[in-house]
Amino acid sequence: MSFYFRVESYISLDILRNIKLLVIDLDGVISDGRLIISQDLKESKTISYRDGLGIKLINSIGIKVSVITSGCSHYLLDRLNYLGVKDFFDSQANKIPAFNKLQKKYCLTDKQVAYMGDDLPDLPFFRESRIFSSSIGCYRSS
Question: What is the b/e burial string over 66-75, where b = at least 16 CB atoms within 10 angstroms of the residue's CB?
Answer without folding.
Answer: bbbbbbebee
